[in-house]
Amino acid sequence: MREAIMAEVSLFARLSRRLLLAGGSAVALIPGGALAQARPQQPRRAPAAAAPAGSPAQSPLGPMDTLARQALLIDADTGAVLLEKSADERMPPSSMSKLMTMYVVFEQLKAGRLQLTQEFPVSERAWRMGGSKMFVQLGTSIPVEALMRGVIVQSGNDACIVLAEGISGSEQQFAELMNTAGQRIGLRNSNFRNATGWPDPEHRMSARDLTILARRIIADFPEYYRYYNERSFRWHEITQENRNPLLARVAGADGLKTGHTEEAGYGLTGSVKRGERRLILVINGLPSMRARAEESERLMEWAFREFENVVLFRASETIEEVPVWLGERPTVPLVGGRDVVLSLPRNWRSRLQVRLRYDAPLPAPVARGQEIGRMEVAGQGVPAMQVPLIAGADVGRLNLFSRVPAVLGRWVFGA
């Protein structure tokens, strides 16, 4: 596979036209395959809040200090990592693991094995459970929807146990459901021993697994995700506020879950949506509720300020015409097959490097959807990625009588 230099020039030309049509400033091709842009002077922003002391996290823009022991900040749509620190370290997730508890409940609801109005009895074990509570009453039965709100808004350990026992008969058996579901959705550094996040040396998750889980909850269960945006819930004459500080501090915040134990420190899995962009943040190991609130707000605002999502190509847009050898047509369109959207620093136009790689000419026949190349994206401060590129049409092979002059022409003229 060789680098297609002419394809690269064509690609830059298309990007330049798109930026001009969108009202952007002019883009010029410069040596090295970068895009250089003369940007209009922007209004000076107010200085950002001072970063807290702490060991640095890594980001495409360079190291960034954070008090969190573990951190991961991603774009939910593109999957781009905007900041990370010990993201694969197995850590005590405390109540953030209740996200997995609710994922199992949501699956049961979606499959029709559970109904929102169905009631589960409160056992003595659930009633006596310590920690954060919904304040369920022994001997009563509670609708599933109320229990869900007791878990999501109030972080009720007692509500988790009522759900676990009602679905699986015991919390231990419910934890097995959690592990099975976690493996199915790709959680590689998670192990669940209970439904509550109660301290257990074998109950562990990673920040990366929590972002995967949050993305799946948002994408798979939009009808239930709305509960994470509820600011308060009242049960048994007791009103409790949602512990998620982002809901009150950050525009567009709509979830998800906080956590705290002595071992884990203060943690948060949060999501913010502004326009078409959604970011997901996981931080853990903060020293206080105040530090958790301030750090989550600072990192979210930083990410929205410093990065943007850019559509390079739409799904059916032809990126390049690739020559076809002995085909019924001389070329086949090279397409992305999906919208190619990247999360890039705001000054990406001066840093982006894009190259196409494919074999040419392609031997016929070529099938629509066949992978025939790739787009490589890189640059200083730009998250490196590769996008598979596919054939946008079928190209059959010439019949025998048509192939003969083509082969002779190649032998004689080298064409």
Descriptive account of the structure:
The protein has a seven-stranded mixed sheet, with helices on one face. 30% of the residues lie in helices and 28% in strands. The protein is built from eleven helices and 22 strands. Helix 2 packs across helix 6, helix 2 packs parallel to helix 7 and helix 4 (144-152) crosses helix 5 (157-168). The protein has helices at 5-21, 98-110, 124-128, 144-152, 157-168, 171-184, 207-220, 222-225, 246-249, 289-306, 400-413, and strands spanning 2-3, 27-30, 34-37, 56-57, 64-65, 70-75, 81-85, 119-121, 141-143, 232-235, 238-241, 253-261, 265-274, 277-286, 307-313, 318-325, 331-335, 340-345, 353-358, 362-363, 371-378, 385-391. The protein is elongated, with a radius of gyration of 26 Å. With 415 residues, it is α+β, with helices and mostly antiparallel strands. Strand 16 and strand 17 (331-335) form a beta hairpin.
